[in-house]
Amino acid sequence: MKSFEEVLDDCIDRIGRGQSVEDCLRLYPEYAQELGLYLRLVLQIQTEGWFEPSEIAKDRGRMLLGQEMARGLSPETKTRGTHWWQKGWGKIMAPVAAALALAIIVYGALVGIVPGLTPEVYAGGLEMVGTGLEENTEVSAVWVTVSEVSVRRAGEGGWINVVDAPMVINLLDPEQTRLVSTKLDSGKYEGISLRVDRVVVVIRGIKVEAELKGPTQVNLEDRFEVKAGKTTVIKLNFGDALELTDVERPACRISKIRMASELRHGMPHALPRGPMTNWGLSERGIEIAG
Amino acid sequence: MRQLADSSRNDKEAKLISIYEESYSRIARYLYAHIGDRRDAEDLASEAFVKALRSIDSYEERGLPMEAWIFRIARNLMVDYLRHKNHYREIPIEDELVGDGNPEQEVADRFQQEELREALKHLTPAQREVISLRFFAGLSAAEVGEIMGKSAGAVREMQSAALKSLRRIMVEK
Questions:
Q1: pTM over cut 0.80
Q2: What value of ipTM does the predicted structure carry?
Q3: What kind and span of H or E run contains A206?
């Protein structure tokens, strides 16, 4: 015969799986009176103690984890023993203005660095499908550190920082595509600016720091509108991925990396399997399914 | 060798990210049961994962399950936090109200939550830990035992004793 402690524990598990208190009391009539008192108390505790963490908090945690992963690549940049309450992390994500929300979601490959190629900004229902992620794929992650994201209001010329703390996104991870979510005044905007500080590529499980060439400030001269009471989702699709040269095997050391950007409206250009050297231009990129 | 080590680390990092998606909310709720501040609980939960990531090389796959290991890290952070704060911080109710619901109901809910947390303070630390892990984080008695370094049977006994104490405290009120 089960002890009262075992019966109580079993019933708590059953309630957790969706059964009712009454169901449990019917199962254990010999303990019904005492059991009922404690199971109702358990329900009260679970109800009163319940809270669902916000999506913003979860996103912030993902961002911190991404930053830490990128930071872990070079031991000298590791920071230990610093706590968020000493650094005031909570304030970093404070809304810029109490009006409307702007979510900028980066899709696809690397943020454009080559002058003259201006990605188009558009809103729509694209979903990112990460490809080249199977086990035999040589590149398993492309970590990009974006240290600033700003938007410019139409006509005023000034830039508004929507994020000024570095964040790291893995461009091959479809679960980590949100760059920033913040609040803005409603109205028309005519530009987005991103500053890219660092790119790290994981090739065959080895993390390699990429050398950035060219300007790391990317200005996208496109118009969008933030409407009252609505969340405007801007999806940026950066096309061609990366060109790696001078790869020294077997250490896979990359001495140079060049990036290009270009808008792709939904039609994919898949990350190729096999060695990453000498890719043809048409082979590079991340597949985006529209 | 270095490749093997990197590969093992990457596997562990991937597992940690997966646990983040599955268990972040549970860890935040567990922390909230102890500290009573939603935003701090959320931030502390994130900090636990970051700390776990920093120590990932020291994590042994054949030992404690990774989720239990992260709960332990969260518990240590919570202890540090409470030591830092030196007391349970009182949160103005209006600061903590969230959602689009009925404000009066939200205030009533908050009072009930405060009463519950007051009652929890009368339990022993181990009993409080069992209640927060079992009912706030939603872990099984065996999982609670892994985190606390106790058998599932011992957890069940503490759980029963804690509920008896809580009931007595709440009835007396």
A1: no
A2: 0.80
A3: strand A206-210
